[in-house]
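Quick entry between incubations.
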Amino acid sequence: MKGEEEKIHQIIEYIYNDMSVEDRKIFEKRLDEDPWLMDQYKRHLAMVENLKISSVLDEIENDPFKDEAHLLAEEALEKHRVSTTEESVVQDHPARNIIKILPWLALAAVLLIGLFIKPLFQPTGDKLFNRFYEPFYSASFTYRGTDDTRKKVEGIQSYMNKDFKASIKIFQDLKEDEIFTAETSFFLGLSYLAEGDYKKAEITFREHLDTYSGLDPEVKWYLGLTYLKLGEDDKAKRLFEELSDFPGSFGKKARRITKILSKE
Amino acid sequence: MNEAELILGIKSRDNVAFAYLRSQFFPVIRHYVLNNSGRMEDAEDVFEEGVVSLIEILDRPNLEMKSKVSTLLVSICRNYWLLVLEKQRAANNYQYRHNENLESEDFSDELDEEVYRNILWQSFGLLKDECRYILRAYFKEIPVKEIADIFGYSPGYLKKKKFYCHKHLVQLVSEHPDYKKLTDADVLLV
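Done. Structure below.
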């Protein structure tokens, strides 16, 4: 019974983000190994998630200026309404016969472009990078850490604050002191990438994949983008193909980018 | 993150502010869309559209917004989703999608979820003011030190307090008269 109580305590600390980075990792490992713990975790998480939703809805309901918000929201919707109205006007317009053949004309144009001009407009790795790259952010990395993780948290916060030079310095120091973990290695790679040092980013991400088992999808995604920037599209494509089977948002983005790269 | 910081963050296109927006309000939009004939991808699209409109509004010069960012964002997203449904109906697509959803989802699950949320919210209302404040502050990701300072507690004591508040809530939920009906119906809850 006491053991169960202790486990519940850990679940609550984990859900409310009151654990150090190291403890989180240990707890996540236990979650994978202990079905009872996983079951309880899901129940408590569902409770907190539902409460969060109710809490936000309650605040909205009690917002004394909610009418003002509704008005602004209505205005914002106008642009979408206008497009709906335009669609219905087009349906009734006398020129609808011409409009009817427009899709065929468009299709013919697309085919022409596809056959003769397509290579000119194909996205390069650089363009794809610009389209898909965005700095990494995850709330789960903003730990309320203990002293032993202070330096690491400081580095992550520097990255979040876009002070990449500072984050690189901190993570390099940690590396030299051999206090290097999956998170620090990942964020060092991210910092190099954000700073435009693609070669170092590539090396760091590759070392990460060889050394650690955590954060695989995240690292592969950013390594793939780094390859695009380095003009190594084939390597990038292979990584995105691997990632495509992954169920999360990285998998979704990887499927999109693989599709585009396959058309080339 | 308070309202002023959030607005400033959005205006300066700060990733931390957008991540906060997502972690705090996307679950609300997802809940709304999924309960109104939508799918997960729809919820993603609606949220994205909502954030774009929110940015456009906040970027307006001389805007004096008194309402909360959450009220505005949720209001935009709700309106937008209703418009999407309207368009889908116009395209004679709605019936098909609606039927498809009815087939793939168990309606009783939705009802149970709603009942559960009510039990949860009513139990939450029975907690002491201090507990409600602490848990809500945690939901909003306010730093522990900041919450602790409000009550004059040490961060360590606040964490203990939060634990007992959560535990008390679990107990109140299990004692709720409707909770037994749900568990008798073999619905897995805390």
